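Ticket #4471: structure output looks truncated?

Reporter: J.K.
Steps to reproduce: submitted the chain below (249 residues) through the standard prediction queue, then opened the result file.
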Amino acid sequence: MSNRLDGKIALVTGGTTGIGLASAQEFVAQGATVFITGRRQAELDQAVASIGPRAIGIRGDVASLDDLDRVYAVIAKRVGRLDIVFANAGGGDMMGVADVTEAHFDRIFGANVKGTLFTVQKALPLLRDGGSIILTGSTTSVQGTENFSVYSASKAAVRNFARSWLLDLKPRRIRVNVISPGPVRTPGLGGLVPAEHTQSLFDQLSGLVPMGRLGEPGEIAKAALFLASDDSSFVNGIELFVDGGAAQV
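Returned output as attached by the reporter:
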């Protein structure tokens, strides 16, 4: 089987763990050169080592416009173009509506909404016409989730970015799609609760998935590969749920 991303240049934000790391590994395995970002240098170095020689790590926080400018300056100097932008970085934590603080809101919307917006905007001068933009959404964008309203709202905003941006970018034939995972076995999911309760959380969430289990990061990476590659050349503006059916029933 030929490499589906042979010669492509990709950026994966939040590429040090979980879905981002698995996707960067998949992209490289399919022939791409991949830049990844992360906020912590030690994790970034470890991720680059695990991905291989066609991975380049750039430390940065997507909520910081200065950091994003530096990321794109490095990419411009090293390769001068991008074919794929996977705006994956983000996260959240749980808090009931009565307890939401300004700091909680700013942290989640800063990474998930502001970070996604400016990751894409600042990539545009480097992104080739006909390129692919992938945004990480979530099943929570279409489901109510107790104590998770701010995160859920941020992912609903991300989903609408794709609908609007595909129109903005129509003259350049740049496709914009959202990949929305269900519960996936990642450090971020486990980190929602104290370590001693992680397995209980995983068991509870598995029970909500019709397939009876959590997803694995590599399964989401395969879907990201589809959206990144020419296999999805007529796919634009979709929200691809990779959720074992969790949000479909």
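Triage note (M.O.): checked the attachment and the full token line is present. DSSP finds eight helices and seven strands in the chain.
Status: closed, working as intended.
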